[in-house]
């Protein structure tokens, strides 16, 4: 038979060695005892508190609320958060659990109050709330900046220098040349120059010189008179140079412009006038020209593929856009921007883990911002989990070299033609993701542009 414990010293020993702070209140609201953990938490000793009432403790601001009164009133265990003040005057937050002790008279004789310090927990919550608020504000600012800077998102000092220079160039009316690798955002910088210029309310037109067949690019740029050639519209046609009068014309991939056509562009830049195809009188325009290329134009000049006089006429003001590997600190904010974009587009709620963002920041993305955007889109779209990690990258990352793509078809049960078509389709699909124009794909794969265009059409690769 188990004997009841009647040794008060033993009871006090047990209470003092409890893991939580304890204060015992009787039915008349008198403090009967506290333990050592309570003294450690509050700074108030058992000797100081014993004999006080709950009213005394509230009056002295030792406590701000009384859980024991709620227990007596509700006749049950009560748990609440309570702001208390220590003997040093510092405030702390505790969770208090008030437990009723019922006497033989079926009335509550005592309330045992157990206190747990949750100040650290609250600080963590507040820190997380503050971090989330800061994060939300940064995203809000990110959206504002993206709208103000034509979608340009950056954090690196290197890109800040580019934007500062672009703001100066935008205020001028001179021709500008934007240089940089494929996918660095040259078209966005061109748009930024227009949107921050005095021409912002007028037309901004773009033509990709590498994407338009040589036989068509002259008519697209300069237009033609009626009857200029077989198949021409009876009324003639305005070209982009004319349509962009008082606005901006962006010549993307200027390095792919046919050599013979470059002299007409040179005349436009020098005289601010041009002839339509089949025209006999010059047309005056006030069109600002911005050009861009990922090629080394000086090398093109040496190979007699680009006119030197046109190069110097275009290169009045220039901007060299750094590749993403030279501004890796932009990758996290770019990745987050693309995540938001594709979450909204596909009605998803994917999240990028910190580990994944750190890993992306170390990748050598040869396709730069465009390749990162394509990568994030594939991650968001094809990964089944909500939180995207490094484990989702295999199968999503592009191969290091398109030529190294392996054929995954069943060789044993496939014909040579099927294998070749599969390999070509895979190769061209990856090349189309990485490179913007058929001319650029042709250069990289050492194939004629016309062949690339024909193959893309054959395999229906958009």
TrEMBL record:
SMART domains: AAA (SM00382). Keywords: Aromatic hydrocarbons catabolism, ATP-binding, Nucleotide-binding. It holds the Pfam family PAS. Residues 152-381 form the Sigma-54 factor interaction domain. GO terms for molecular function: ATP binding; DNA binding. Coiled coil: none annotated. Residues 7-82 form the PAS domain. GO terms for biological process: regulation of DNA-templated transcription. The keyword Nucleotide-binding applies. InterPro entries: AAA+_ATPase, AAA_lid_NorR, Homeodomain-like_sf, HTH_TyrR, P-loop_NTPase, PAS, PAS-like_dom_sf, PAS_fold. The keyword Nucleotide-binding applies. This is HTH-type transcriptional regulatory protein TyrR. It comes from Hominibacterium faecale.
């Amino acid at each position: 038979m188990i004997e009841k414990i009647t040794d008060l010293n033993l009871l006090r020993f047990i209470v003092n060695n409890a893991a939580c702070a304890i204060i015992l209140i009787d039915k008349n609201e008198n403090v009967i005892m506290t333990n050592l953990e309570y003294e450690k938490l509050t700074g108030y000793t058992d000797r100081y508190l014993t004999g006080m009432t709950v009213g005394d403790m509230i009056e002295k601001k030792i406590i701000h609320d009384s859980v024991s009164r709620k227990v007596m009133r509700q006749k049950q265990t009560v748990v609440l958060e309570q702001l208390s003040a220590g003997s040093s005057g510092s405030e702390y937050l505790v969770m208090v659990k008030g437990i009723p002790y019922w006497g033989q008279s079926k009335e509550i004789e005592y309330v045992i109050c157990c206190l747990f310090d949750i100040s650290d927990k609250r600080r963590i919550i507040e820190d997380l709330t503050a971090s989330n608020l800061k994060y939300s504000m940064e995203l809000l600012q990110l959206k504002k900046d993206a709208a103000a800077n034509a979608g340009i998102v950056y954090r690196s000092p290197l890109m800040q220098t580019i934007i500062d220079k672009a703001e100066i160039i935008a205020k001028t009316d001179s021709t500008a040349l934007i240089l940089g690798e494929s996918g660095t955002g040259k078209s966005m910088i061109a748009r930024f120059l227009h949107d921050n210029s005095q021409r912002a309310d007028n037309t901004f037109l773009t033509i990709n010189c590498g994407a338009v067949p040589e036989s068509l690019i002259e008519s697209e740029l300069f237009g033609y008179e009626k009857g200029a050639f077989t198949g021409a519209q009876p009324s003639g046609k305005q070209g982009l140079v004319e349509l962009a009068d008082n606005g901006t014309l962006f010549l993307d991939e200027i390095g792919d412009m046919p050599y013979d056509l470059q002299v007409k562009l040179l005349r436009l830049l020098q005289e601010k006038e041009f002839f339509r195809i089949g025209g006999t009188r010059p047309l005056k325009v006030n069109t600002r020209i911005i050009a861009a290329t990922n090629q080394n134009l000086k090398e093109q000049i040496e190979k007699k593929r680009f006119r030197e006089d046109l190069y110097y006429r275009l290169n009045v003001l220039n901007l060299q856009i750094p590749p993403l590997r030279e501004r890796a600190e932009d990758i996290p904010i770019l990745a987050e921007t693309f995540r938001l974009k594709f979450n909204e587009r596909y009605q998803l709620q994917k999240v990028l883990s910190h580990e994944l963002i750190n890993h992306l920041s170390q990748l050598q993305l040869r396709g730069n911002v465009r390749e990162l955007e394509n990568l994030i889109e594939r991650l968001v779209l094809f990964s089944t989990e909500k939180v995207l990690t490094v484990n989702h990258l295999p199968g999503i990352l592009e191969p290091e070299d398109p030529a190294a793509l392996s054929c995954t078809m069943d060789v044993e049960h496939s014909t040579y033609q099927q294998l070749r078509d599969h390999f070509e389709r895979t190769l061209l699909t990856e090349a189309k993701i990485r490179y913007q124009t058929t001319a650029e794909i042709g250069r990289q794969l050492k194939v004629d542009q016309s062949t690339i265009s024909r193959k893309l059409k054959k395999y229906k690769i958009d």
